[in-house]
What we know:
The protein has a three-stranded antiparallel β-sheet, with helices on one face. The chain has one domain. It is 66% helix and 3% strand. The mean pLDDT is 82. The two termini are 16 Å apart. By secondary structure, it is mainly alpha-helical. The protein is globular and about 60 Å long.
Amino acid sequence: MSGMPSPLSFRNIFFPAMLLACLGLMNIYSAGRNTPLQFLWIKHAIWLGISFALGILVRQREGGRAFHWSIPMYLLSLGSLILILLVGKTIGGSTRWFSLGFLGTFQPSELAKWITLLMVSHLWGQYQPDRTPKYLGVVLSAVILAPMVLIFLQPDLGMALSFLPVFILIPLIKKLRLKSVVIVMILLSLVGIGGWKYVLKPYQKERVMTFLNPSKDLKGPGYQINQSRIAIGNGGLWGRGIGGGTQTQLNFIPVKTTDFVFSVWAEEHGYIGVCVVLSLFGLLITRMLEIATRARTLEESYFAIGAACIFSLHFFVNVGMVIGALPNKGMALPFFSYGGSSTLAFCLVLGLLGSIQHRGISKS
């Protein structure tokens, strides 16, 4: 597309994402120093390079075609989720990955989440908000539930819950009657009660109980949150510097390149560094909402709003978890946590949003 601004332009949605990715790579390098993870940053750098290159390619070449291909992509994603249950790699009791040799593993559910949003946006965008057929809500719910159930069977509760923004988005934008919203909330509550009693595994219940009382057993279930809080407190105003965080470098922080990567950043870069990262995430999500308001079509607008909601969920759940405000759900911090699958998915979504952004600017 001629006249498309550079990804490094401040107004471009790639700008805050690239800054976050650079800071995240530096953070992963520091977290892995003098440990078996000391070369993990190289793998992550390779994934970042591949992912951003593909994202920029999508931004330049997509031209609105992704929505037309949403149905076959959705069916392929369901097929991959079924296949992973049959032949996937099992780690820690969960079967979520395909092995990719040196590059590690690939998690199809990361892409399935976004393809589902693409599918829902496409189906939903065919109708004006006040002229949607009565059966559409049932169809959209089935479209969302199918991958959620397959992901839950892996099991991966955190990833399954990341589909919730799409569910919540439907009644908000369609402006359903209060009665309908109340019925949905009651049904979700009943599902939650049933899930607690009959579905959740003991370790998942333990995470919830630890969240409610993190100081009960600081050497047991409460260990992770306690060490994370100590690390964040150690950071002070300016932080301890790269490689200077005692909780990080002495390996007190658990899973410090993924779930608790924000604790590492807070300890080594302090309150000022935290504000920088929060501002970049705020800018990224604001850009998505701006794209939604300027989109040419309803399906593009719905996708941008859904993307903003899912990115916000990842951000608030991850940060809320490391400070003990939410239970540990193992949800990646976009462009900051180590993970090739999530990085690739986030960059492809940025590419699609960048394409929508350019078409919206051209329209205006």
